[in-house]
Amino acid sequence: MSAPRTVSDPAELTDVDERWPVVGSSDLHRDSWVVALRADQVQRPGAAEEPFRRLVVEHPGAAVVLAVDDEEHVLCVRHYRHAAGRRFIELPAGLCDAAGEDPLAVAQRELREEVQTAAREWAHLTSAYSSPGISAELVHYYLARGLTHDGRGDFELAHEEADMEVLRVPFADLYAAVLSGRLTDTPLVVAVLTAAARGLADPGPRGATAG
Fold this sequence. Notes:
The protein is α+β, with helices and mostly antiparallel strands and 211 residues long. The protein is 17% helix and 36% strand. A hairpin with a 6-residue loop joins β1 (22-29) and β2 (36-42).
């Protein structure tokens, strides 16, 4: 590896699309759901080496909602996650599971279905890849304000979602819990820190409750 190159032009700090040749691919798991697992044989361009194997989780992406009410409280859910063997405090979120579905529409749907809430004001916080070493899952983060109660319609919670507890948490306390490492769900961490950094939600006195 060569010595680090100093970046002097901030315009250079951007991710770029690039696709290396795939010389073979096989499905390891695929069914009627939108998530699948495949194995690709990838060739490094211009390299005199054998192709190497990379596992890819196909994922349609997701939308996450940081819903903040007029008293700077955030609507959260306490949600059991089997793979992690842990119950997390999370934000309302869901998959972009229909082809061509607008992520904002997904965010609005999940806010209504999970916490029976609608919002008058929406702002895009950021979009970020969750784990690009294994998946192209792109998560879209939104800030919602002007909250009102709204019904789920004919949607019925099932499985883990039927066991969720809805919470209303002061943003400052949520921010402090993220900084202290007590809250560890990545989408929640990204949304809370982004909103605070952009001045879109009030974290309170910096460091006052982060211990």
